[in-house]
């Protein structure tokens, strides 16, 4: 049992990042669906690595440089997996008037005007928000933002049917819906970093974390309704867009409570 869970964690790391993992023998497609409960854990891993680099960079450079370096490192770690989803979703929902036309645009590998604007604005906002925080708070924001935003993604898998073309889905097992138990396991991954942040950052009270978490929930619900209305359910690109927007919502909720 423990070996299988470790194997699922490695599948999640392999799917969401470019980090090297040991070869998985006797791989079964259903493992990818089962591994989704570890997506928040992978988010914590990515966020932790980005946070470590942010802290190191902040020792020698300005907060703005540290924010740019850590953001670029996060993109390298994930192969721009979620950023690509954000750009494709902006192109599809911005340029497609019908479900069919939106999905066709989202399958196109070329980057359009809506995707370019959405991606550039998201990156600018992400860097600006991180640079506005004290180093310790930015470190906590990166870890919780990355972990919580992956939790938002699996909540959409649990709440929505698959809205794309199932016959041409890049990862068909992900089109299966999650069970409540799998979603609960994913949520528990976020509890430890929140408790640690409350302990190590007494200047940012536990109640203040309610705003970034609340904004993340609002963004997730907005994406749930938007994807259901426009596409009939979630897609891989829609999940990537949700991750990016929830991460931004977390940073915005923290930065909004800091003195100007």
Automatic annotation (TrEMBL):
It catalyses: alpha-ribazole + adenosylcob(III)inamide-GDP = adenosylcob(III)alamin + GMP + H(+); alpha-ribazole 5'-phosphate + adenosylcob(III)inamide-GDP = adenosylcob(III)alamin 5'-phosphate + GMP + H(+). The keyword Secreted does not apply. Its EC number is 2.7.8.26. Its main location: membrane. It is a multi-pass membrane protein. Coiled coil: none annotated. The chain crosses the membrane at residues 41-69, 111-131, 137-162, 183-202. The gene is cobS. GO terms for cellular component: plasma membrane. This is Adenosylcobinamide-GDP ribazoletransferase.
